[in-house]
Amino acid sequence: MKRIFSAIFLMGVVLVGPLGVRAQSVSNPTSDAVFPPPPAAAVDTPVWVRELTDKSEAYFVLGAHAFDESRPEAARDYFNLALDVLLESGSGAKAHPALNAYYLQLIERVRQYDRQMQQTELGWGEQKFTPSPLDLLNNIQVDEAVASNVQVFGNLDFTAVASTPEVRRFLAYFTRGGGRGTIANGLRRSGRYLPIARRIFAEEGVPQDLVWLAQAESGWSSNAMSTAAAYGIWQFIPSTGARFGLTQNAWIDERGGIEQPTRAAAKYLKWLNTRFGGDWLLAMAAYNCGEGNVGRALSRSRYDDFWSLHRQGLLPKETQNYVPIILSMILIAKNPAFYGFENVKPEPALRYDMLPVTASVDLRTLGSQAGVAPEILRSYNPELLTYSVPANYRLRVPPGTHANVQNALLAMQATPTPHRGMKTQMVRKKRK
Questions:
Q1: Euclidean distance between CA atoms 393 and 154, whole angstroms
Q2: Which residue segments constitute the domains of the chain, with CATH numbers given?
Q3: First and final CA of the chain: distance in angstroms?
Q4: Which pTM does this prediction carry?
Q5: Sign of dihedral through CA atoms 198, 204, 209, 214?
């Protein structure tokens, strides 16, 4: 899922396309980081929306400048103020589509600074990001002679078309080439989430084999982040995530969660399948490049199937590779011993209890009082952006810790600490 940005100029910030922004102020900050820009305001955007976004953007620019000067505490304050302008306004961040779009982009830009601060030991939070496998598969080279000798074994539960030259090429890469590590790591990590994914896909009426999209999208890593800012196991970009009900705010990004984005992915695939006449291959292609691109490709072709679009070159190169990558991964995942992965042992299935959080708490304090490492609690709740847990959240806890965490929660929530709304928490790391 890609996003393309236009070059615009707003509030003295230079926003450069197609993929990035660098915040600049009159004192010429030194950072060379590239960040997503805010969306350009439409001509008919109400004045009150422009005033709110202008005020918020001014604080964001000050935060970016503080970051460039290695002043993380000041950056924290300014980024919090930028969010507060929208969250604490009388209308709220979702009162107008343009305002909500700006809000989602603002969160994404603040998170980009989060990653930069982690890399420079000035960061808040401990979130670590891994690359999306698709970013590594765009330019692979496979000897065609090797590919032609690969035996295709196994069946798919949503199409009879599997033994194509394109599928053979990726089977060769994943079994005899440089892609073996990608497959082995994904198969190992899949055990953690596979039962949840299969249950949810079955509930949504989506073929079970399609859970293996996660193998290509993220390698089953909830922290995977693509160069196009798609995030999580199912690699949603902010707009598509919001479209399918995934909460994205200053404290939670459900794109990086477990159950929520899995259900959103299943719903999106089912919607795409309906949109393209029950063709799951076209649905997969649209999951990668968007339904608009697939629709336009179909309108230019005399045929209405994926392989025809592929061989006519009517789809983006990444999408032409994407579907055969998925098909080859499904075949391997369903028949690991045949393809040489019999020694890969999947991780144990993720199991947990759920506890309601009625008032905001800090996982570090909660973990200390419950005798559970906060890093463990954080790993069970990957949608949390920091160690701060907001009110009205359902916290996952490891099996066997339910009683201790519940007692600690009850004690902490009985006397909640007064505060002016939750903030994005920045934690200065101690230098060794």
A1: 42
A2: 8-119 (1.20.58), 133-334 (1.10.530.10), 353-414 (no CATH)
A3: 40
A4: 0.69
A5: negative
Question: Over the stretch 94-130, which tens digit does the pLDDT of each residue have?
Answer: 678 888 888 878 877 877 776 666 555 433 444 455 6
Cβ(299)–Cβ(265) under 8 Å? no
Region of 101 on the Ramachandran plot (φ > 0 left; ψ -120 to 50 alpha; else beta) = alpha
Q: How far apart are CA 153 and CA 142, in angstroms?
A: 19
Residue 342 to residue 335: CA distance in whole angstroms: 9
Q: pLDDT for 26-77, tens place per residue?
A: 223 333 444 445 555 555 778 888 888 888 898 888 888 878 877 776 776 7
Report in angstroms the alpha-carbon separations of 187 from 82, 197, 348, 429. 42, 14, 12, 34
217 classed as catalytic: yes
CB neighbour list of residue 81: distance below 8 Å, 6 or more residues apart: 59, 63
CB 39 within 8 A of CB 7: no
State both tokens at 385.
């952006």
- Reading the block at residue 342, the tokens are 């019999």
Residue among 57, 217, 254, 383 flagged as catalytic: 217
